Amino acid sequence: MAISDVQEYTHLTDEEVEQLGRELDAIRKEIEESRGDSDAAYINRMIRIQRYLAVAGRLTLLLGTQSKKTRVPAAIAGATFLGLHKILENMEIGHNVMHGQWDWMNDPEIHSSNWEWDTAQPAEQWKHSHNYIHHQFTNVLGYDNDIGYGILRMAREQKWHPVYLGQPVYNALLASLFQWGVALHDLDLERIRKGEKDPKEMKRQLRQIGRKGRNQVLKDYVIYPALSGRQWKTTLAANATANLMRNLWAYVIIFCGHFPDGALHFTEEELEDETRAEWYLRQMLGSANFNGGPLLHIMSGNLGFQIEHHLFPDLPSNRYAEISVKVRALCEKYDIPYTTGPLYKQYGQALRTIIKLSLPNGMTSSDQPEPPTPSRSRKRKSDSERPSRIQELGVWSRGKSTERQAS
Amino acid sequence: MSGTIPWERVRRAGSKLTTPLLPDDYLTLLNPLWSSRELRGRVEKVVQETDDAATLVIRPGWGWRYDHRPGQYVGIGVQVDGKFQWRSYSVSSPPQRSYQPGSGRTIAITVRAMPEGFVSSHLVGGLEPGTIVRLALPEGDFVLPDPPPEKLLFLVGGSGVTPVMAMLRTLDRRSAGNGRAMPDVVLHYSSPTEDRMIFRHEIERLEEKYDELTVHKLFTETDGMLELADLDDLCPDWRERETYACGPGPMLDAITEHFEAADLEDHLHLERFSLDLGGDGGEGGEITFRNTGKTVEVDGATTVLEAGEEAGIGMPYGCRMGICHTCTLTLVSGKVRDLRNGDEFDSPNEPVQTCVTTAVGACTLDI
């Protein structure tokens, strides 16, 4: 089922693949040239809101819990503010800044080279495991560790073992301890298991994780509770709740990126001589979006536009919505699947896969959609079948030809 | 005052509450100047000097050291179309070592809008008071020594007057405030026209105030450029003076030639705002950018910064001439050579200035 050749899978000709690549390059160029003041204002606004949320959360917990009357509402409000602050920081700010989406501003305080995010994973390791490994080798079996993170079996090609029977439980643990799962991600558990990991590198990474993780734990579970005096238990519980909130949310969003039905896997043959245009095609076939309003997209770091994010990981996230309109049109034009759906449905599909793949393949059926058949015949089309051409722009367009003819 | 409170320790303790950020990142929510993470300043006043030049009075934030020497320049970064653009300008105000009640401490830079220079135009015409700018600490060797030489000659063209103005103001303040003698100063100031002469009125006031100060004005649009052969008439004892020259490149070239011919180059001090790449380039090699795994093969003349930009990496940059250190990145492995002096850097995890270094063989950068 995993795909060894994206071009063959999509039935596109060499020329069509190259043309698609050029059209995507043009979208990138257009966004790059139009980045400006309003984009800079956007990310600065996000950062300001996130920091105000952090201050509001900490103060509410420190002060509001001291009186018996306000204790419960303060704990609830404080945990909510903190949870939102962590979600916003991790998803819309940290993840995207570390991708270099805001490097163009040349602002040393909002730059991929030195951003440190508010989670246990050290930025340096994240940039390797995520920006490089996952984004370069997206969904290629044996290369991309994000296919199950070395813990879950997420592709039918991954060999079954009785240990996977516990997969629903591992999944629940991963969801609730997500920041720690992410923290260990770059260690590459699979390579450690196989004894392929350089012990010196492993020690260095563990020390780095230890340092970062210790500071994170101290902050939420020792220092702020201690500052709350007699109300330390309330603050501790609220902080743990905030972390859990962030963990569950980040987990759900991230599992909707590549695990819903329709997001495909690839074999390493695909990587051989892969052109830039084929890489684009693999990103489109391997990613899944979800629908929602602007607030949902901000809180999920605009990863509801996972396809657009994978095509252009370093373009500013606030522009993905407008990019998605163009990418979708291209998918229709080239008859390429564009996987999307409501959040609950996308996550539901991922969860179904987790449960199904805990069993051997023979006991379950695949939910992956059938590959697109060459629906449109590849033979030369007659003029009446061809889309009309906008003469002055030299581009192909679908539909609306009647309108144009009329005018 | 600050000696009694160990600020650095307070800050470190505070960072346990704000990790992975610094307390500064939250304090800037209250006042944008309350951060020493990046040097910054607030534009307090924009004073129009001529039609195309303005003085920006800037109040620096935390971490600024007010110990610039008269004649030095600072880097200033302003956000234009969302992007920070860096330029360097001489400080025109004299150093303020002590706090002045009421006014606080500020620095002033004077900028002339260059045709097609969109940053300088923005600085002169587009900055509202209250704008927050980034700053880089003062640098430069074009400085007035303390005590000053007994006899001085300033050769100034156009906006090259700014570092010299800082020197004159310093001499004035020392003389007025501390009663020290004004040295014997000759200022030769070329400007296209009288209207475009920056600090014209202030220089006239100083000339009236001090017998020791002689000012020659030359309006080049009507009277032509300074001929150095005329220096013997304008300032017969120029050979006995320490000379400070600042102005357009061709003017400085002619002055250098003239002083070299007289075997007096040791007494000539120049300020040029351009990169002098005296050192040899590296051998070139393959540069790897760690976070994306992108690599690019470069020759020995291409700087690491240019190589990164070519590879599509969002490289940080500033002055692009080795002054402001905005472009500094960590060299993970390999070796780079500084184009200015041939210095080599090859310690692992060493910070290097990408705008003035080239690869010597394969190297990897942390970005």
Average pLDDT, all residues of chain B: 88
Q: Unreliable stretches of chain A, pLDDT < 50, 5 or more residues?
A: 387-407
- Counted by DSSP, the helix tally of chain B is 9
Number of E-state strands of chain A: 2
In CATH, the architecture of the largest domain in chain B is 3-Layer(aba) Sandwich
Main beta sheet of chain B: 6 strands, antiparallel
Helix and strand run of chain B:
HHEEEEEHEEHEHEHHEHEEEHEEEE
Chain-averaged pLDDT of chain A: 90
Overall number of domains of chain A: 1
| Oligomerization status of the protein chains | heterodimer
Tell me the structural class of chain A.
Answer: mainly alpha
Content of β-strand of chain B: 25-35%
Strand content of chain A: under 5%
Description of the molecule:
The complex is a heterodimer of chains A (407) and B (367). In chain A, 57% of the residues lie in helices and 1% in strands. Chain A has 407 residues and is mainly α. Chain A has one domain (6-361). Chain A has a two-stranded antiparallel ribbon. By secondary structure, chain B is α/β, with parallel strands linked by helices. Chain B has 4 domains: 1-30, no CATH class; 38-139, Elongation Factor Tu (Ef-tu), domain 3 (Beta Barrel); 151-271, 3-Layer(aba) Sandwich (Rossmann fold); 285-365, Roll (Ubiquitin-like (UB roll)), CATH 3.10.20.30. Chain B is 23% helix and 32% strand. Chain B has 9 helices and 17 strands. The interface between A and B is large, with 41 and 31 residues.
